[in-house]
Specification:
This protein is mostly helical. The chain folds into 2 domains: 81 residues, no CATH class; 67 residues, no CATH class. 53% of the residues lie in helices and 10% in strands. The protein is built from 7 helices and 5 strands. A hairpin with a 6-residue loop joins strand 1 and strand 2. Helix 5 packs across helix 6 and helix 6 packs across helix 7.
Length: 173
């Protein structure tokens, strides 16, 4: 089965802007058992549903409103590919490649471990992974979050990312 976009959730780093849409015209016959049992029950197409053309236009407008230099962050490269397929082409204000969470955290952990003169950077990377997972889990608990709901996953990933940044002494907000 090939991947298809069913819903898309995004939140800005500062947490002030979010985007969520559910596609009403995806091919349900291509849905895996996981999607049918876990993801589809979380959807509310009457509130958030749009056909692909309208979803694309809404996402394009949202991204344009964010300003001149938008960096997309993903935990899975396939999400970037699905988003680009929805948009048909990348908006000019969006950077050409996404920042991938785990390679970025890995590189930051190596750099921080070196600066702290730690003998084992992999230990520090493990600490970063644990901080991410703990805060992600805590976000779901605090907010009655729905795991595998695109917007809630984006918000939980943001919370995990911010926890890692704090551990790395890189406070953004």
């Amino acid at each position: 089965m090939s991947s298809q976009l069913i819903s898309l959730g995004a939140v800005t780093l500062d947490g002030k802007h979010e985007f969520y849409v559910e596609l009403t015209d995806y091919n349900k016959k291509l849905s895996s058992e996981f999607v049918r049992k876990i993801v589809e029950p979380l959807l509310d197409p009457y509130t958030h549903g749009k056909p692909m053309v309208q979803a694309s236009a809404a996402l394009w407008c949202w991204l344009e409103e964010l300003g001149p230099d938008v960096e997309i962050c993903c935990d899975y490269k396939g999400d970037w590919d699905l988003m680009l397929a929805l948009l048909d082409e990348k908006p000019p204000n969006v950077q050409p490649q996404p920042m991938m969470i785990w390679p970025e955290i890995n590189q930051a952990a190596i750099k921080q471990a070196y600066m702290l003169q730690l003998p084992d950077w992999s230990w520090f990377y493990g600490q970063c992974k644990q901080a991410f997972a703990n805060e992600q889990h805590a976000w779901f608990l605090r907010n009655n979050g729905r795991v595998h709901h695109a917007l809630d996953d984006a918000k939980a990933n943001r919370a995990g990312w911010m926890a890692v940044q704090k551990l790395l002494h890189r406070d953004y907000y």
